[in-house]
Amino acid sequence: MRRFLRPGHDPVRERLKRDLFQFNKTVEHGFPHQPSALGYSPFLRLMAIGTRSGAIKLYGAPGVEFMGLHEENNTVMQIHFIPDQCQLVTLLDDNSLHLWSLKQHSGASELREEHRFTLKGPPGSPPSATQITAVLPYSSREVLYLGTESGNIFVVELPSFRVLEDRTITSEAVLQRVPEDYCNRRSCELVEALREHPKNPDQILIGYSRGLIVLWDLQNNKVTHHFLGSQQLENLYWQRDGSKFISCHYDGSYTQWPVSSDNRQPEPLENLVPYGPFPCKAISKIYWQTTKNGLPYIIFQGGMPRASYGDRHSISVVHGSQQTAFDFTSRVIDFFIIFSSEPTAEFDDPSAMVVLAEEELVVIDLKTAGWPAVHPPYLASLHCSAITCSHHVSNIPLKLWERIISAGSKQNIHYSNMPWPIDGGTNIAPDPPQRDLLLTGHEDGTVRFWDASGVCLHLLYKLSTVRVFLTDADPNDNMNTLGEDEWPPLRKVGTFDPYSDDPRLGIQKIYLCKYSGYLAVAGTAGQVLVMELNDEDAEHVVDHAEADLLQDQEGYRWKGHEKLKTRDGPVRFEAGFQPFVLVQCQPPAVVTSLALHSEWKLVAFGTSHGFGLFDHQQKRLVFVKCTLHPSDQLALEGPLSRVKSLKKSLRQSFRRIRRSRVSSRKRRGGSGNASEVQEANAKFDQDALQEMELAPVQRKIEARSAEDSFTGFVRTLYFADTFLRDSSRHCPSLWAGTNGGTVYAFCLRVPPAERRMDEPVRAEQAKEIQLMHRAPVVGILVLDGRSTPLPEPLEVAHDLSKSPDMQGSHQLLVVSEEQFKVFTLPKVSSKLKLKLTALEGCRVRKVTVANFGSCKTDDYSENDLAVLTNLGDIQIISLPFLKLQIRYPCIRKEDVSGIASCVFTKYGQGFYLISPSEFERFSLSTKWLVEPRCVVDMPEVTSNNHVHNKSGVENASRKSRSLGDYGEDERKAGRLMEHALLNDEKVLKEIQSTLEGGR
Amino acid sequence: EFRRFSLERSKPGKFEEFYGLLQHVHKIPNVDVLVGYTDIHGDLLPINNDDNYHKAVSTANPLLRIFIQRKEDADYSAFGTDTMTRKKNVLSNVLRPDNHKKKPHIVISMPQDFRPVSSIIDVDILPETHRRVRLYKYGTEKPLGFYIRDGSSVRVTPHGLEKVPGIFISRLVPGGLAQSTGLLAVNDEVLEVNGIEVSGKSLDQVTDMMIANSRNLIITVRPANQRNNVVRNSRTSGSSGQSTESSLPSSMPNILENFLHGEEESDEEDVIIEDSGEPQQIPKAAPTSESLESLTQIELLHESTQNGFLPSSEMNSNHSAGSISMEYEVQDPDHKSLEEDGTIITL
């Protein structure tokens, strides 16, 4: 009867589990998906970004980050900081206002939503009467002025959002004194801009969309000046001294207006179309910045000639004779200028321009000649070319770290040396305990090296593999070869470039040996590059070999892409990782697995056809093994037909979303009535449901057989020094696992170091294991005599790991998508197994060995398996007994790309993509937790600030191990966030089914 | 050759003893024979274990006619319902073996050569509206052959009727295992897969579970057609069914455990090829004693002992754990390869 006892309820173990494991989503790295609004507080020196899914993120000095989420998940339209306060107001596209504040709680600041408010008009008034178009947080901090579509301006009290009806500025009151003929031509229309007078808080400037601008006196409740603009207004900007303001217009012009007490209806001083004379696009925002030397900076967005440059996303900076139109690769959402905010300062003296484009953040140094860009310490555009794979390396030795940084710094010489200008708040998080690298492979054939040690994911170095190959696009074909006299003076800025010259260049697998600095990179067209870190530029020939994985298999025809053409002769490489060996698989199918052994100087690679082993010391192919099943036609013909159908279905589903969005927006725009919208949505859902019922999805239930396609697909490769043939002698071995549940083991003979160049490496197949459940093998691991996973190559040589136990018997762990199995070695007999799919219906997507340390004692740590399933759950499974320890829901199961992108670290953290441009970082460990902890103080209290701050730090360190309700909130927010991003469930399902069906 | 002898009805003893007695009476101590008897309906039925031997003795009224055949030239088809009435004289058949050359018979092998392809199990613990079907899949000769889909079913809840999502059988492949059993039909709602409820799981999840268990799939369905439901023995009388209701409610969890465990047992083992030699089945490792988690080890030990030798008496007692009908398929003798290792009939 003892076997019926439920295992795993040992109280000691349960307690230990609490000390070891804990799940937290800690921080989002990268650039927010679909940003929609930007705000900046010169007082706090914090920047805020709102997104279309209702998230709001605050950034200050590196490491200072806050995140909030509007429950409604609606688009954030505007963000305004309350002057001289730790507060901000957001306007959403449902016309609701939200007041957020930064408050200190147990030593760290937190962003909390305080109040929400929707402006309501008198009963019976149209919704446009209260549709907010402009927001002015008044300098007294007590009221907000809200300009609306009807032209009325409402005043609400803060923080209660009480409407002060007696102070409403109606359009009638404004129009009273406007000349008759002007009034007849145009009514006020909506309020386009509200600006407070920089010197006199009693006056506000009101701009209406049809062109009328008035200066309103708050004391006497009347118009003091009328400025009769003739063009449709876009925006307004006061000069610092309040003697002039500037307006910008829909036709691409801007106008300067004088403000003086003697002329109540002044004529414009200057009216200019900067990129005329042909019709131009609107200038949507403008700054006029004064400087000591007298020449102002005029900075404006848009205004390009409509016909020839109407598609450009530009911001122009004019300073005397210098003029540059910064050309962005994606739409400009908004921008701001950082200038002297001291009220006593006489001039603006702008120092930097911060531009939020749809896909990246660009900061321009305005103080340095040539206006170079500033390298942002955060908000990196991970997706400047689509991410195709990622690889994490923990605990990088200092030497390698420094060499990578120095290689990277040589690439960054064109960046400004200016310190990061947005520097509000204080980072009080403890220093990251170790140096971690996250490597991302991209579609354009580059590998980016990110500093993933702390809260700020920072680009260290970028490696391009393109130079090895001959591609259609000539690298000398520079887009930026614009002559001096070119007009408009466009200059490309930013790094976002989603266009890949050749999809075959895409990086699929990366393996970095942190001890030797060897890097292996494999790509879409079967190319495998082995690189070495070189601190100098060098020109050399890349050794080239071909691996025919089909060998003597006859009559197969590859219908996929051709292999990449290589460059003949020596190639010049910049300092950093330089390729010295190129192996090209034939047929040139995607490389699906890669392993590098830096001690034996061997690299193994696998595709859907088989796998091979290459000796990169002797530059010689050791062997290839074809894993194809004779009946597997699909694998042979290549991916073309499948890709096409996937693309098509994706396109269709996207079209469907767009259609549904358009229609729902139309309905919303027409009525603005919430219940009607709901009804419409409900109807849409019903239609969708009916559609689903008409064409039921069905799934075939059939045992997998050897004849299923893609069984030869090599999923995993693993080097191990273990007992493969007999229990007395261990030898190097290579293990490979396929999609069809087969494991191959090869016995390797690597000559000793002194004869390494003289004798060939030999390999001989020793074992072949066929798992009867035939599920894809996703992981192979050898455990030593103490049941510890074998160390990485060179780990022992560098004294960073105990040498493996070679006395006791070794064990082999094979992880398939469905089961975990432990076998004995060298005689393979099954010892233990854990079924996953059969019992829970989920499959293993990612698996890694992770080391978990106890948060209570420093001397206890253990190795476990961290597993991500296709349902998005993370499970921790003990080694070597394969007992499920704990399970956490992490990623929504519909988020296929998120699950596919997940990468675990060696110490129980992980990353996955929550959008094409953002990594969510999570932690499974109680010990290794990287999350933002920061304080934002009111700058006025500078005197006692220091003392306060110090106690904050102490508090923080005391508290940092035990997460209170703070962490809970954060987590909740994270979950909501995900929901916001992936609420098109139907589409995601469809994508998933296409992917899975195709597999 | 006719013999007549007497037996004490109240103490029939064991089949083994009886078999020995027969051999003794006929003076054929070293000849393998098949033993059969005619029951009250005139059917020729086999005697090959304690249970049917006892049954046979109990039907003796007062005479029990027993037929003995040499095993080598046995006519297996002689057994079965209506055998005595269909053929004029079984005796002539038995006595003149050359007779059956006239008709090519389908050769049915011995019961131990049979293997089940499907069965209805746990009738005594399931509601009458549900059916738990076990499909045995060996090798690849016959596809499982069915499809499932999403759908909705109506449940009775405290708040009245409620529509809930469910998983249904959408299609049976002609000639597939599922169809050939006759136990599953289109629109049957799938409630459990190998003891795990499917409610709350997605279609893909259930698909994965079924495929992962495809070698020994146990699905509990609510048949769309509720008219063919099994009627409990307790409510009817006079049935000659062989089902026994040995299990008490208290032993139910035990049974469930048992069958889950059995499912684990009959899982096929992986195959290894060493040094490009012949494929071999991977054996189970002998447990080492110096283990921390003794529980696992005990489990393993138990498994391996059960795996090796199987007392034949266990066969029946296991069957009585609720199974009422079993279909057998003749197995190709050539196919008795790796798969068959004595664990098949273990539940």
TrEMBL record, chain A:
Query: Has UniProt tagged this entry with the keyword Kinase?
Result: no
Organism of this sequence: Ciconia maguari
Segments carrying the region annotation (Disordered) are: 658-680, 945-969
Identification of the protein by name: LLGL scribble cell polarity complex component 2
Q: Where is the Lethal giant larvae homologue domain?
A: 273-372
List residue spans for each WD repeat: 69-110, 433-451
Q: Coiled-coil ranges per the record? A: none
Give the UniProt keywords, A-Z: Cell cycle, Cell division, Cytoplasm, Exocytosis, Phosphoprotein, Repeat, WD repeat
Subunit-level organization: Interacts with GPSM2/LGN, PRKCI/aPKC and PARD6B/Par-6. The complex is enhanced during mitosis. Interacts with DCAF1.
TrEMBL record, chain B:
Keyword terms of this UniProt record: Cell cycle, Cell division, Cell junction, Cell membrane, Cytoplasm, Membrane, Tight junction
Subcellular location as annotated: Cell junction, Tight junction; Cell membrane; Cytoplasm
Gene behind the chain: Pard6b_0
Chain residue ranges for the region called Disordered = 228-254
Name the family: Belongs to the PAR6 family.
CDD domains from the entry?
Answer: PB1_Par6, PDZ_Par6-like
Q: Per the annotation, which location comes first and is thus the protein's main one?
A: other
Tell me, what's a Pfam family for it?
Answer: PDZ
Q: Does the keyword Signal apply?
A: no
Q: Which domain of life is it from?
A: Eukaryota
Q: Its GO biological process terms? A: cell division; centrosome cycle; establishment or maintenance of cell polarity; regulation of cellular localization
Task: Please report the organism this UniProt entry assigns to the protein.
Answer: Ciconia maguari
Name assigned to this protein: PAR6B protein
